[in-house]
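Pasting as-is:
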Amino acid sequence: MSRSEKWRTFSADFETTVEENTRQQTATEVWSAASVELWTEDVMVFHSIGELYEYYVSLDENIVVYFHNLKFDGNFWLSYLLYDLKFKQAFDPAPDNQGGKFKKNWEMPDKSFKYVISDMGQWYSMTIKVNGHYIELKDSLKLLPFSLKQIGISFKTKHQKLDMEYKGHRYAGCPITPEELKYIANDVLVIKEALEFMFSEGHKKLTIGSCCLDEFKKSKTVGDDYSKLFPDLYKIPLDPEVYGSSTAGEWIHKSYKGGWCYLVKGKECKEYRNGVTADVNSLYPSVMHSESGSDYPIGKPKFIHVEANEGDIWDAYNCPIKYDPFWFQPSEKPKKLWDYGKFYFFRIKTRFYLKPGKLPFVQIKGSWMYKGTEALESSDIVGKDGIPRSEYYDIDGNLHDTRVELTLTQTDFILLREHYNLVDYELLDYCEFDSTIGLFDEYIDKYAAIKKTSKGAMRQLAKLFLNNLYGKMASSMNSSFKVAFEKDDGSVGFYEVDENDKKPAAPELDITVSGNGGTAETWVKGSSRTDATWIMGSFTSANLPKNPDNLKALANMTTSDLQDVTDSEGNTHAYSDVTSGTTVKLKLAEGTAGNITTFATKAYGGRNDIGGGLDLTNYDRHAGDSQNNTLEIELSKHSQLYAKLLFGGRSAQLEGIDEKVHAGFLTNNNRVIINGGADNITHTASSDEFFTSKETPTLVTKGIFGAEGYEASNNLVSVNNTIIAAGMKTARKLGLVGGRGMYDMRIGENSVDADQTAIANSNVVTIRNSYIGYALSASDNDWNSGTSDWDNGFSIYGGWSTGEAKNNIVSVEDSIINGNIIGGLEFQNIIKSDKDHLRQLNANLVSLHNVTLTGNSSIYGTATANGEYQTGGNLRLDESKTQAVNRRRGIAYLAGKNEMNSAYVRYIHFGQYYDNAYLENNYTNDINVTQDYYLSELKAGNQLEQTERYHSTPLAGVVYTNNPDYKHYDNEKIQLGQQVAGSFLLNRSGFHSDLSSQDSNQSTETNGSHNFWVAVYANLADTVSGDGTSLDTSRRLFNSTSNEVNHGYGTDGKAGLSLLAHDNGMMVTNDGHTLMDAFTGNRNQKDASGNEVVANGNGYYNGQVLYLAVNSGKNTGKDIHAVDIDFSKIEEFRSKNDQDIKAFGNTQIGISIHGRDMIHASVPIGDGNTTEQLDHLTFDVDGFDIMQGSNGKVANATYSFYKYLHFDGSYDKDNRTIKTVEGAEGGAGIAYWLKSLNVLDGKQVVLNGRTDPGDTTDPDNYTLSAQLTGKGGVFIPEGNTVIMGDENSWYYREDQKKDEKNRTWFNTYRGETTVATGATLQQGANQALGYTRNLALGENTTYALNGKTQSIGGLQQEKDSTIDFNTLNSSPDQSGQLTITGGLSQNLNGIASASIKGTLTGNSHAVLNAEYSNLSIHTDNMGYEGAVNLTNSIAKLESAKALAAASTTAGTGSLLYLNGADGSGNHYLNNLTNAGTVYLSRQATASTDTLNMVNITGDYKGEGGTLVYNTRLNGDHDSPTDFVSIAGAATGTSHVRVNALPGSNGAQTEQGIHILHAENADSGFALKEGGPIVGGAYYYGLEGRNEGTSGGKQDWYLVNSGEIRSEAGSYVNNSLALTQMHMRLHDRMGQAYYSDPFTGEVKEQAAWGRVVGNHTHYRMENGATKTHAETYVTQIGGDLFRKTINDDWKYTIGAFGGALDGRSHTHGRYHAKSEVDGFALGVYGTLYTGNSPDKGFYLDSWLMWGKYDNEIYGSLPKFTYDSDGWVASLEVGKTLPIGETGKAGIDRVVWSWQPQAQVIWDGVKADRAEDSNHTIYRQLGNDNIIFRLGARLHANREDKGLGFIEANWIHNSRKRGVSMNGDRVYQDGARDSGEIRIGAEGHLKKNLLGWITLGVRAGKGGYHEEAAQAGIKYLFE
């Protein structure tokens, strides 16, 4: 079984109930078990643990199963395995049975199990081995430390924990209800979904703490320096006799303290209420962050033991003060990361006593004298008598003090001093660290931000990572564990095994070589074994003479045979007791230039030769294993190591056995670590650079093998800072191998009784800063006995196997390799294949970061070879005769600059590489290098799903250069807009698809065949620089001066490409051929001299290419074809070898963007070679951030990509080949184009265009063909020319084929479009400016519509700028249309603002529309002959000839102001259509100086619009006015509105005021009043006269016939309405009395209220107008005093207030309305005789002041004014009895007659008022005196109620009227009037009176009023 096999992962759970089992103990039985595989939803439910186990076994695969709380579920497994299955524990007890250890996985026998249970009872995992496979149980609670319910809620999983209570008897095998099934299923689904999230985020460690630490190690702050910042302190030895600890880790760990929990003494066991809880959010991360001010120790500590040194100053405690922490003050803390301070730890001995008022916190564990959990107040111990003592006697009678030993951090020591008094204090020793601050900031800030901005699972994950790193940083190294055993009662018990080191020391051989005993040649050269020193960490073999019999004997040996072996010296042992787990450390000490340290060796970390027996089935399966061995090599300056061979481990090979043998042995998890001591290896290193001084150490070797054996998997070779020279000529063929799967070179099915003749999977080779294959001259290479230099090549393999080799990885950084790099080579058990039956090779991987492969060296993801059998048999491969077979398989990761001869891979990724440190830490874990989105992993044939996205999470351990946090991001990112990517391949031999052999070392098997990369994946930066200005898109891949690649554009290769050139690719055409041909062919090709070469294909792709791989057209000084690809033959080869991916020989492109868990790509489709649909051959990627200078991110962009790799060259579409000219540069890359830009709100994207008018660059390069969307805008820089919109683009052309309503390809951006000074904006398509809210044209700019249409939300055109509507060719039959519309404006009122200060140019077909806009034109535009259409807009023509040549239409709702005039007051229009309103005067000021003579030189058409005149309205000869002269035809109807200028007093006319002359008026031409034309108090009218010969009314006049304005009536009503506030005594009295007529009670106070409604009709000036008015009054008051003077006379004094609301509507020629409202306050007094005024004589008076607001509106604009003043009244009356009717006490009625007289003075006056026509209003009739004479007839029914009728005559001393500009207008008929009123008064209930009154008043001229009144009064007792 190979460790490289995948492990499937499950979530599982048990449901249990208590039953009695056969062992008579109460146990919990599993009655249901559920399991679900991750990434599926298929929940399996079983009735017992046995059924679940059988299911897992049936899978016949390695699996991992997560239980949530394995401590619970694991006990069932333990019992089941021990008692039911009788499995054995895979535990090796120590010889004395005191302890032991569990076996490694590969050591476990079948049907055995092991587990990890800590000494604290924590369950971590359990591993079961059955049928050669493993079932590994893990605890998800360690990774997700929450309950199931909490997990579901916090992670917002799709499924949630359900609540259910089991009912009834439950037992294994019992029925399970549907409700229970759902409950059980949800439990495992919740965990499954949470685990999927964790794994997808890359968190796969066993515990959450380990995940946190793993993430922390990835931070940029830590980088590769974790081991330096946090070294393993347990590896720093201390003298335990001096320091009390054997390691620094043990010493410091004693200072580690947990949380503090303290209960105040005396508060125990009491209940408290109303407490306060305080909490600190994220306490752990907060103290770790630099904001807390905390600094932390880093690096290795310096230990100081305190002794009585001479010269020390001793304190009272016999301690040198200079070391004494008692006086310690912390040094100044570092202020930022990598500032350094000091941090101390102290070990002291002292007694201590708590200070008063302080808190205890010292705990002493592991001492019989103290409770380990108690916070001590004193170090004294308390005896049984309760007395504390500072001394005690031990059991032997020895006296001791109670001083305790404490190890403290400096922080804790400061606290100790603060809270305790120290007595008999002694400092023992201390250690000093460097310290810094902010180490954890990056980590904490990252997860704090995620927590703040995320919800659900991501937020919960952030909380976990914030809180769990703290504890992980102080993990204990104690790994004592528990082992299960069966107790006497049959139950399971545990005993503890002590294991104090989690990494127990393995057998280790440590050798240091120094000096040189003589010339190396004397002991290096030669062939015998004794010439070099053999070094082996372990060696299991027998020292027997090498002959067939002994080899067979060795092959038959088993582990138990070893002690019986007798070696040549008679010793009965076999070298080593162990076969695995050993280490060799070989160091060459530093020499000198004259005495180089030199050593020759053949070294093994471990080697095993015994064969375990030759029986094919019954043999010792692990006898020959050699695993977990390490070989470490360290070189120093001036040293040279000759290593014949270096092995991490080598297992038994069964040499000399010629028959078929059993499967070989495991050689897994071995390591070779080489640290060569060289610095600064560079790409440009020359062959002499390193060895000239012999200072740089060198390793000369014939081969390095991480492992060699039958199964050589998961091995590691790590080479660092090393120069390696070849130790033999053939090292180029096989030099360095991670794992070599070889079983004595056996190959074929008859050689080994196994599926594979050898296995080499998941091996890792890491190389950094090294030179492999260094050209060491013959004179300097002691192993080269000749005079000529060797071929110094040294090839590198991740894995090499005669059988299977997969998932091997070679990862190289910053190195030079002279030799091939092969991820894995496999024969697949076949000695030789043929071209008709090629091997289906597995995937292996090569990862390169800044690597140069010299000479003819290439990389091979996966390689294979053909060979021959060794002479004399058919079992073994003759390695010397193997020939490589040219194939393109396997995978490559490339980042930075990588140079090589060629890259033979199937899939290649640019912009990513493996982190060597990660691989070195995880080489024992299987890493599947194949990704699900690879085409080989997808379905074949036409059923491939057409999609553009494949799920892909970032790979653990892979560094992505598109991560902005990557330290080399700026240099190595791959960014759209680059010419050659920041991470790229320099392929010296070019890009050729031919697989023919190139030399004798290669097989001819694939001669004539062609193949190339199947897919290329690029990690693109998610940002694109928008700062580029270059329009030079010429391909210059190499700098002509430096020969370095050009990442930029321009002649120097440094210029940034303008965004405008990014979208050229959408110009692809396919005239006469297929789209695929169009994309494959391209026109931008050059020969070796740089001249353009025309492609054979008719079509072309004219877009940009982001080159990932390049070639200069030369190799070793010879001209070559940089590109030579035959697509047809590639397709033929793939189809023949079951690799048909329907790509037609092409290479698929995949795009990855940082932060997205997906690959963007498009699967090949069956008709891709003939399709005419662009989206079948392209795919889109959105979300690119366009970055521009200080503006930062300005837009999000979507780019389109051709789905296949672009190749340079001339394309022969008939033969489907593409080839560059010999000597011409060329390359392969991504064909892309900018498809759309979404500009961000508040931003403008800068479009850099052509700056030199003489520049002949292709206009495509400064045309924005991409779609522009978003809320932001566009900025055209100063002096640039930009074309926006492109009707030639593919998308536009295709969109135009749709119905207009379905079209979508047009710009929709809404922000401002700014054209800076001197710039030109040309429009290339309709609506190219989208929905821009404003077009701002700077000075000296040009906006050319080029005959297109455009709508904008505003326009700001500065002086000397031009808007040109005409087409590019100035066609007289075409022009453009520009619409300014408020619908696109972002003004709050929805009105667009437009200002034209430049010029307009356009022929008669040009159109300028203004819709819902405010437009001003400040310049003459005689060159604009088109239309100007106003719709619901305002246009102000500030120049006399602004539209003098145009045809202007003032549409409905539009206003046109003719503000401009020449020196004579003339304004010019050509044609005018008026459906809106045209203001003829200049509007700056309203005066006779701004009147215009409007000359309409063309036609005038009235469509119901209005002409607004300014006129001084007087008589015929003193009325200046605007005048309109129409030279052309005058048709239609228009309205006239006149604004009266100041001085318009009104006067009757004879001739009239002349306002318009139309020379050619037709009979239907007419002017109508558009509203009142008023001057003073009068209306003016219109009169047209036919004074010419046109047949129509040519001349129009304003005439005044003396008609009065309606405003006069409305004005008078406001003063009339105020009289409704007047009152009479009975209006407020009712049937009141002084004393109750029935009880005699005196009523000295009263309150009253009344409401009045009035309707008035009257006329003005002899019936000129009619007014209808309504007035409402509310008054309340109170009789404050009601007193008697004597028996006859009484008086009342009171106060009142009231409110008024009046409305009127006046009808005349036009209508007018008025409103008045206000309030009044007053006092009153009444003198009367009798019990009430109605009983005798009365005299009443009142005084009132009022204030009122007035307004008048209607046909003219509203105007307002105020009025206020005093009103006084005096009223007198006397009641005269007439008689009685009826019977007393029943229906008696007393009749009386009451004559009355009243005088009212009305002093309310109105303020001066002025309306919009400059009419001044003044009130007439002020200080009016109103006389009233009348009488009432009473009918009083026994003082319970009365009715009355009243008649009055009313006279006004003054007429009411108004003065309007001096013209007086009076009210008709109101001066004298008569009135009749009737009403009733009575008692409603006791003390409550009420009354109602109805009245009518009438006078002359139609004047009359109707009024109604209701009142109540309450008499207080």
